[in-house]
Amino acid sequence: MSTRKFAAIATGMTLALTLAACGGGGAGSTTEEEPGDEGTTTEESEGGLIGVSMPTQVSERWIADGDAVKAGLEEAGYEVDLQYAGDDIPTQSQQIDQMITKGAKLLIIAAIDGTALAGQLDAAAAAGIPVIAYDRLIRDSENVDFYVTFDNYNVGVQQGTALLHGLGLLDAEGNEAADAPAGPFNIEVFAGSLDDNNAHFFFDGAMETLKPYIEDGTIVVKSGQTNIEQVATLRWQGETAQKRMEDLLTSTYSDGSKVDGILSPNDTLARGIITALQNAGYTEMPPVTGQDAEIASVKLIADGVQFSTIFKDTRKLADQSVTAAQDFLAGEEPEANDTETYDNGVKVVPSYLLESDIVYADNIQALLVDSGYWTAEEVASGQAEG
Ligand code: BGC
């Protein structure tokens, strides 16, 4: 019998015992997160403590991730210490230190600054605690044992493809449009936080996709700002993107010209950019891309305001991290499907990459509602019902 299978059976047994102990009330039903709280620890359980460190509760995706990882681990019989760091690097370091002190057997970490946790990871390694990097790679440390994420370069390719579709240059399948307009189109490009390894992958994938159109003059980045350092958004702050868009409109578009499209790396930034455009009097929105399928943006897409987003099913990512945790704790190496891409500066971290999908108005139902990610009511109201 494979260890993987054995672990699954063992987990099933633990789950059965946990459920029995709870009188059928469900495992770990004790916790409710308050925004900005200190995190929560559930009742003692057989499997031991696992520390889960998340960056922030400002972007709703991390709340969904935290909840899903916690629920999955509890179902598998572990006790969970879930902490959010309010996008503050020292807070995240401290929270991880505390998890180690409390005797965590394993850590699952979505880093704020991918280069700032080497000290914590050294301490974890010294205590024999495996570390799984969650969604964002932790850099400059030998002690990252595994990485669960999406194919981040391809997310960028999908964002570039969505923008080209929005401009009418590609069709919905990503093929050259038969009746493609000649352009030229004025666009502006945005990137995420430079200390987030993913931001570079998203940007590279998107820019590589736009490159032929920029080179042949079909697309013009009118501000001339095309380096990631010029277009990055510290800590992925929506207000920062809004301010940069406002500045661009003043500096580059006060000659009566219009912005025809925006590459935005995620939904939070997309909404800031859209606000800037609306405040400047744009009634017809140019295509603005996104990522995360946040409910507020899904509604904007349904309403024809934001053009697209990228759906990364956080439930699948959470499952993958739980599987990897179980493997480590059963003394096994988790199964990687990529052992080449994610060099963290010290080593290539074995990774499990998930696939993502482009969401447009006409496939919200198929991708997001039919899969149970959001309900039709949530899409209509733009608010998660929890
Ligand atoms: C994640 C994105 C998210 C961004 C901001 C990235 O590391 O992969 O899904 O939009 O962080 O939170």
Brief overview:
The chain is of the alpha/beta class and 386 residues long. The chain is built from 13 helices and twelve strands.
What do these coordinates show?
Helices cover 41% and strands 12% of the residues. The chain is α/β, with parallel strands linked by helices and 386 residues long. Strand 7 (185-189), helix 6 (197-215) and strand 8 form a beta-alpha-beta unit. The longest helix is centred in the first third of the chain and has 19 residues, at 3-21. Residues 1-43 have low confidence and may be disordered. Beta-D-glucopyranose binds at residues 59, 61, 135-136, 192, 196, 198, 236, 266, 291-292. Beta-D-glucopyranose (BGC) is lined by residues 59, 61, 135-136, 192, 196, 198, 236, 266, 291-292.
